[in-house]
Amino acid sequence: MFSFEVIAESTESRARAGVIQTAHGAVETPIFMPVGTLGSVKSISPEELVETGVQIILGNTYHLYLRPGCEVISKFEGLHGFMNWRKPILTDSGGFQVFSLAKLAKISPEGVTFQSHVDGSKHLLSPEKVIDIQTCLGTDIMMCLDQCIEFPATREQIRAALEITTQWAQRCRQAWQTAQNGGIALFGIVQGGMFTDLRRRSAEELVQIDFSGYAVGGLSVGEPVEVMMEMADFTLPILPQARPRYIMGVGTPENLIELVTLGADMFDCVLPTRNARNGQMFTQNGTINISNSRYKDDSDPLDSGCRCYTCRNYSRAYLRHLYLARELLAYRLNTIHNIHYFISFIRRMRAAIMADTFESFRKDFYRQLDN
Amino acid sequence: MFSFEVIAESTESRARAGVIQTAHGAVETPIFMPVGTLGSVKSISPEELVETGVQIILGNTYHLYLRPGCEVISKFEGLHGFMNWRKPILTDSGGFQVFSLAKLAKISPEGVTFQSHVDGSKHLLSPEKVIDIQTCLGTDIMMCLDQCIEFPATREQIRAALEITTQWAQRCRQAWQTAQNGGIALFGIVQGGMFTDLRRRSAEELVQIDFSGYAVGGLSVGEPVEVMMEMADFTLPILPQARPRYIMGVGTPENLIELVTLGADMFDCVLPTRNARNGQMFTQNGTINISNSRYKDDSDPLDSGCRCYTCRNYSRAYLRHLYLARELLAYRLNTIHNIHYFISFIRRMRAAIMADTFESFRKDFYRQLDN
Asked: How far is B133 from chain A (nearest CA, A)?
């Protein structure tokens, strides 16, 4: 059921446009995936996701495994039925949260043991188990268990994490094949920190195992943006041209446009949703903080060119008032706008690639941002 | 512009159906008004209010006066434009919040001085000022400044509050007339605590002044439900049959059906919205707490007969999960259901009055509740 096809390539950069097919429909790349941590993209409904143009969302395996748990979600034929979302879902493996959020994460031969950040209960995630859980969640694209290391880290730490990541990737690939989840894709995750030779080794080992797609993990973990771009620039060309290439946990609009230039196809990030809840709004002229007193009686919409529900119906003054009064509607209206911004931005990138005008689109983007 | 017409009366009780006309459209009585304290019915959008059948909402003058203030709202031609709500609005006078929420409320010859609960700033609300503020808010129905006394209180406290309430009502009536707000209605508020003779005196004094409609205030302030019903039963017939009669701050579905039986036309209460945010859901078989573990993997909707957005799309298990995880979507989905419950309940009451089958409707309601 899963397939990927490149349908246009820029003649001026590695930017490309494609189509992913899944059991729950098509996804046009490049694509941005909003994060639905606990079976809900915080504050907004499935209908609002569709209205803002969202084609695929990300679910967090770690969180959903702890709450409400697979035994509940399986009664609803997976996450789609449970949360009433009928389009594609990508789930992460839970590895990132185990190492960043859970307590006492410890690698054993079997996998990684940890204590829940919710209630302190003890759990084991193994490569086989993350395939089981993601199968139960009924995802469209599942990810291998990996070990993501923060920046900075020693070469030795990075090398050890890389080796575990490759071992786990092999076991995930085996479990995935055994489960014969026909339609569900499995992506490998490249690690290797900020060392190009380790990035190359990780990528080549994963390509050898053969996955439906490849993610570049371990970026946006505290390194300077130049280093992130250098690593992406180095790693992306090593990955097969015929498979989707996914940069995990990134990023700002500027990050996205640069990484698309380098040939990336997929992105996820909490930035539009989390920042919306903190009052930071994305506009064609850069970010604004809606709590700023200059918007006190401003009757303009957030972003004059925007056609989202929020901008069509509400003023900056009203949004500022709701935000300062901590009204629940504030989080929703802000989130709708920010997601719409990211989605329409990446759609316009895709249209420019299709028309082979991506480089001029990129220049226009920066020019507008400086206005 | 404002008018009221009784279009049907029960032959078995004082229950009646009517139509209020305002500059922003018609309101079919009996009616329940959800509370939109700060320019938003907490967690839901104007479109969702319309979809659940809401015809009129209540705005809190005290809160809106403090945040964002009249100078902001007046730039949007009132609250309707500011919050994007195009149907009728009733605003209270702020008196209730001044005496219950603000600090150091003190009655002076001019009105009542208090300190804001938000920032401690000092303010004066006078009868003239509450008319000014409500005019600026662009409301459809404004309320007189009154002094509401909690239960229990001495006869002397109640008498003093009643006398101030009548004096303020006269000044409100004068200010309203001077302002010549053609289309905007002004309602008087009956006080008098739990003393029938004081209730009679208050009602008669207000009727003498002559208002567009009359509210019974000072109920649901801690008294036993039997006492509340006794006071309503005594007070409602004293009020003019040709004017709408509004019971403020009430109440449960059981309260509503009893008060409609006694001839009340209008209600407002935070019960459906506040309880939704605390996980207490109204159903045809009584209230349930959505956090109950019995709903852990329950795939049924909240209320099997309900046609609200929440019940059409989500299971109890999902709602329980969202609520326990404190997901923002929980508050919205719960609020939509509870408001829909109250609105469809009062609509069905109205239909029964029109068909003159109200008493059998009432018996069926209690029978179902006990199921």
From this structure: 17
pTM (two decimals): 0.97
Q: For residue B94, give the nearest of B120, B121, B58, B43 by alpha carbon.
A: B58
Q: Which contiguous run of DSSP H or E holds residue A347?
A: helix A328-354
For A204-251, the pLDDT digits (tens) are 999 999 999 999 999 999 999 999 999 999 999 999 999 999 999 999
The answer to whether the complex's ipTM is over 0.90 is yes
Q: How confident is the model at residue A182 (pLDDT cuts 50, 70, 90)?
A: low
* Helix axes A196-209 and A155-179, enclosed angle (nearest 10): 10
C-alpha angle with apex B344: B370 to A329, nearest 5 degrees? 110
B331-351 pLDDT, tens digit each: 999 999 999 999 999 999 999
- The owner of tokens 């949703």 is A273
Do the chains contact at B317 and A75, CB–CB below 8 Å? yes
Residues 307-336 of A with CB under 8 A from B: 313-315, 317-318, 320-322, 324-325, 327-329, 331-332
Phi-psi label, residue B97: left if phi above 0, alpha if psi -120 to 50, beta otherwise? alpha
Cα A291 to the chain's mean position, in Å?
28
The set of residues, in sequence order, having a beta carbon less than 8 Å from that of A118 and lying 6+ positions away, is A66, A67
Q: How far is CA B147 from CA B93, B211, B365, in A?
A: 10, 18, 35
Give B138-162 pLDDT, tens digit per residue.
Answer: 999 999 999 999 999 999 999 999 9
Cβ-defined contact of A67 to B296 (cutoff 8 Å): no
- What does the mean pLDDT of chain A come to? 96
Residues of A labelled catalytic: 92, 268
Between CA A302 and CA A319 the distance in angstroms is 9
With CA atoms as reference, report the closest residue to A110 among A124, A131, A123, A130: A124
Show Cβ contacts of residue B169 under 8 Å, excluding neighbours closer than 6 positions: B127, B144, B145, B146, B188, B189, B205, B206, B209, B211
B78 lies within 8 A of chain A by CB: no
What is the number of CB-based contacts under 8 A between chain A and chain B?
Answer: 102
Tell me the pairing of strands A25-29 and A16-22.
Answer: antiparallel
Which residue shows structure tokens 């008087």? B188
- CB < 8 Å to B332, chain A: 43, 45, 328, 332
Contact B169, B187 (CB under 8 A): no
Q: Is residue B297 a contact partner of residue B328, using CB atoms and an 8 Å limit?
A: no
Tell me the torsion sign for CA atoms A68, A71, A72, A78: positive
CB contact under 8 A, A297 and B71: yes
Q: Which helix (H) or strand (E) holds A214?
A: strand A213-216
| Separation of alpha carbons A111 and A129, rounded Å | 9
With an 8 Å Cβ cutoff, are A328 and B43 in contact? yes
Q: Which residues of A touch B117 (CB under 8 A)?
A: none
